[in-house]
Specification:
268 residues; alpha+beta; 5-stranded antiparallel sheet; disordered C terminus; 3-stranded antiparallel sheet
Length: 268
């Protein structure tokens, strides 16, 4: 009897979802992966939170995942990198709603052909804290950066700066010699979800390889770039305000697949 009662309770609980009547979106967070809705069930107010589940972990399921992607749309490509939007959740049951059918639910990044360095970078690995001394930077880090540049790891950056690729994605360009820079959507942003806005600003000067090269004399230049970004972003994306933006510089010696230095802007 207890098992039958438990099963009946489960059926009743599952049936509630089909009777949910939408009223408004209360919140959307975690980069658009979780949404909280207000609505009514049986004429009573309720709150419904829906969160995307993790991808399957079995090799057999994952091996079928790329071929199961539907409505693949290329966002951009540059050198060996390409970025897409796609759907892996199947079509919406609401065939009358074109938006529901075509809305992508995954963003896909492709590196082809990849190198052993890429494989190592994207594989699960341990993390260690290292205190970088001037000696280590001079003897180990700078030669490492030089090798990576010679291997072409920054070709995709030069392609953008020199106008060979991704020019349709550039949303802001400030000319001015050493003060010149451009802004475009970061490859990790889906270009849709404003709560996870992620922009990439690439400086045109090539004499600054990493955070270590910044000196006191560069402060006015950095302040100028900061103000330009804070002024431009709300104009480019209505609904975003200055005090919602976070800007930071990436230290290129940590990751030679992105340009030194650059600034990212994202909402809280």
């Amino acid at each position: 009897m207890a098992d039958e009662a438990d099963q009946a309770d489960k059926v009743r609980a599952e049936a509630k979802l089909s009777r949910f009547e939408f009223e408004q979106v209360l919140n959307q967070d975690q980069g658009g992966r979780r949404v909280t809705l207000q609505g009514r069930i049986d004429d009573q107010s309720c709150i419904l939170t829906i969160e995307r589940c993790a991808f399957p972990t079995s090799p057999s399921d994952l091996s079928r995942l790329p071929s199961s992607l539907q409505r693949v749309q290329n966002l951009s490509s540059n050198d060996i990198y390409a970025w897409y939007l796609a759907s892996c959740g199947g079509q919406s049951s609401d065939t009358r709603n074109e938006d529901a059918i075509s809305t992508p639910d995954v963003k896909v990044n492709l590196i082809h052909p990849c190198t052993e360095a890429h494989i190592k970078k994207y594989s699960r690995q341990g993390v260690r804290m290292v205190t970088e001394t001037p000696h280590i930077y001079r003897e180990r880090i700078q030669p490492y950066m030089q090798r990576k540049r010679e291997e072409g790891r920054l070709n995709w950056v030069w392609n953008i700066i020199e106008g060979r690729t991704e020019q349709e994605d550039v949303i802001l360009r400030v000319s001015g010699g050493e003060e010149g820079f451009l802004v475009l959507p970061d490859l990790n942003w889906d270009r849709i979800t404003l709560t996870s806005l992620h922009l990439l600003a690439i400086v045109e000067r090539r004499d600054i390889w990493s955070l270590r090269d910044l000196k006191k004399r560069h402060i006015p230049w950095l302040q100028h770039m900061r103000e330009k970004l804070l002024d431009a972003t709300p104009n480019l994306y209505p609904g975003i305000e200055k005090d919602q933006l976070k800007l930071y510089i990436h230290c290129a010696c940590c990751d030679l697949s992105i340009p030194p230095p650059h600034t990212l802007a994202e909402t809280d």
